[in-house]
Amino acid sequence: MVQCRGIRGATTVEANTAEAIVQATRELLLALVEANGVELDQIASIIFTTTRDLTATFPAVAARELGWIHVPLLCAHEMDVPGAPMGVVRVLMHVNTEKSPREIRHVYLRGARVLRPEFGQDLTVLTEDRRGMGGAEQ
């Protein structure tokens, strides 16, 4: 039975520049869809949050640049908790899937691995055209 499931992920950004934010977010989005075998039509929506130090652009720009024009996207700032890591982009991707919660693979890259060590990934090479995810929607 198809149900809406949440897939979590996070990454860190090297600098507060539009290029760095978009590049890190793109890497994370592609890692999430690859790890979970997600097709574009399965994505119901995506919520992005950033720590307050990241202000150069919206992380959702990465999804739009991938051609995900019909996916509802929302950006917000994460809670400003003392001692929490800075330079972090977090994602909550809602997907329609037959997978159980135990089958979902959450992905934490770069310095964000400290947030959820059990889900930390070392994905250094990602292909933008995996299953058409890097191209424009039809």
Would you write up a description of this structure?
It is globular and about 40 Å long. It is an alpha/beta fold. The C terminus is likely disordered. α2 links the parallel β2 and β3. The chain has 2 helices and 5 strands.
Could you list some keywords that capture this structure?
138 residues; alpha/beta; 5-stranded mixed beta sheet; 5 strands; 18% helix; 25% strand
State the gist of this model:
The chain has 138 residues and is of the alpha/beta class. The chain has 2 helices and 5 strands. The protein has helices spanning 18-36, 60-65; strands at 3-12, 43-50, 73-77, 88-97, 107-108.
Q: Order of strands across the biggest sheet?
A: 3-2-4-1-5
Rg is 14 Å
Number of helices: 2
Q: Total strand count, please?
A: 5
**Apparent shape:** globular
Low-confidence stretches: 124-138
- Let me know the average pLDDT: 88
Helix content estimate:
10-25%
Largest sheet: 5 strands, mixed
Amount of beta strand: 25-35%
How far do the termini sit from each other?
A: 26 Å
Secondary-structure content class: alpha/beta
Q: What is the succession of H and E elements?
A: EHEHEEE
Helices and strands in order:
Elements: E1 3-12, H1 18-36, E2 43-50, H2 60-65, E3 73-77, E4 88-97, E5 107-108
Parallel strand pairs: 1-5, 2-3
Antiparallel strand pairs: 1-4, 2-4
